Amino acid sequence: MSSKKSYKNYFRSPTEGNSQDIIIPQRTTHRLQQISVRNVNHPDINLDNADPPSACPKNLSHSFTELSQLQNFEVNDGSNDGSMDRDDQSDLSSDISSDESDAEGNNDTEQPIYQGARITPMESCLLIYSFAIRHKIDKSTMSDLLTLINFHLPNGALIPSSVFLLNKSLGPDYNSAKKIPYCSQCQLIIDEVEGKCLKCEEKVSSSGAIKCGSYFISFDIGSIMKSLLQQQLILDSLDKTFKSRDSAADTLRDIKDGLAYKNLRLQKYDLSCCVNTDGVAIFNSSRFSIWPLLLSINELDYRLRRKHTILAGLWFGVEKPNFNLFLQPLTEQANILGREGIKWTRNGINVTSRILFPMFAADSVARCQIQGITQFNGEFSCPWCLMKGENYKISERSHKWIFDPKESAPLRNHESFLEHLKQLRDILFHGSSATNNFGIKTASCLLKLPSFNIIDGFVFDYMHTVLLGVVRMLTFAWTDSKNHNKPFYIGSKADIWSCAQSDKILCQMLYATLLWNIIHNLPDHFHTGHLPNQGAVYPQADIFSSTLIGDYTKNSSLHPLSNWTPIVERDGCSNH
Question: Can you give the pTM of this predicted structure?
């Protein structure tokens, strides 16, 4: 432990000691460089022709002169500064808090990194990070790269000046990414100890599979959750949920107000997540796609839930993922998190939160593969009931698998699903060539998730079935000019989508999904799923009832799926 007399002696006169033995600490040099780059506190001071501080030893003069010429900065003489008596730990704490405040101040990701730039701060951070991953550079090289980039940018550029700030600007710590190699023949994870596939027993190493591209990426969900729980906005939002969790209010405002959520019987600090996955096409000219596995924390406010979505896994390639393979790391982590939970600090108190995954959101194509049932165009393909359905011939070349709404069928449930799965096992064990039993084809790995209902745990495909399905079909049937000779065509009766009255009705409507969005005019945007997803296709009955004859209103309102349209109040949707 050095004495106070020798503390920061590089600011003292050379006569007080041997100047040849004086060395500037690496952290101090780094801090001065950051000050020189940022030039925030004293932008008007010009030290281009200034001499080094008189109290600085001669052997340090050259270093300070170089820093002065790079950018303006100010060094205070320690002789009259009472803060010079602080120890190194306090100095480090101030550095960290300064870095944190700088990061919070530069957290505006919408504006460009400087005036006239083509990229935002977040895009810049992602490009730098992807460069580091691609070329496998270490932390020291990354720090030098950031310093070099900052020297080439104008003053005030919104880009991190250290590796710490870069990691913080990207959000949660994703450094724990793990490559999961699998056998390309059997689609099973390779045992690292055995060095072979446990099914086909083909000898293949993990490194060999990764080199061939037979791998996907999994992330440590627990560490990412701990990182999020350190943010004050997250804690404030969770506090509101914890206080209102036991309320008996029957107004539906969010997931947390639903009956299935309340049946989880979560303890005070327990959390739940919704899992989501969908394919994203990267190139129009290629079948290559990525499938991110995303988690959203149900206990957060909606905006925070969307902002802090967690990446739990990533599949990429020309083929769709084998979901039992892709979801295996999730189920393994979920069992640990559901049993042991994560330990974190809330207001200075150590608490433990179990993490449950009771919901899974996927479109109809992916859902049937994840659930392990027949695709939606086959018999017993309904994921919620046991109606067989029938093949309906539309023309000589096309047909659809339909379900008669007049028929009734028993509903599926978790217990009946397991029973039918056991029956399928017995059927196959006796040598039968059956492909399914009541639509069930295989055992989903989600059956291993704690507190997950294999039937009710899946979310209804609202967008494709309702918005871009039935409602879109009816709307285009009524308004498409190719149907001008049909009795249901409304173009000859009233130009409903452009009349001022219908526009006024549209703009006054609010829906539970996005209450803050005002619905806009329909015809220019109906060909995509964006505007219908905001609820703009629901006002049919209201417009027809005030504009056209009652047949169209009856046709729209009698459709089974139109009953899903919520009648909402500004503060929520009542069960009554």
Answer: 0.68
